[in-house]
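Revision sheet: structure tokens.
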Amino acid sequence: MSASPDLIMIQFLEWVAARPRRREDVLDAWQSSCPRFPVWEDARADGLVRQCGGEIGERRVELTERGRAMLDRGRAV
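Predicted:
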């Protein structure tokens, strides 16, 4: 994680961090079929976000410690 994160990734991480997000909301807002903008898939693969249980069996998406560190680093740039 030495390189500066892309702006789109910082925007995604800020969006997730702003308030609790349901998995369905994340997919609706950020999933892309365009191979140039797979921010949701990249964040999951890089361990920046995780899915966890929510109320009534819904899945929540939240930042991991690694995701928070990347967001902090991106804000400092």
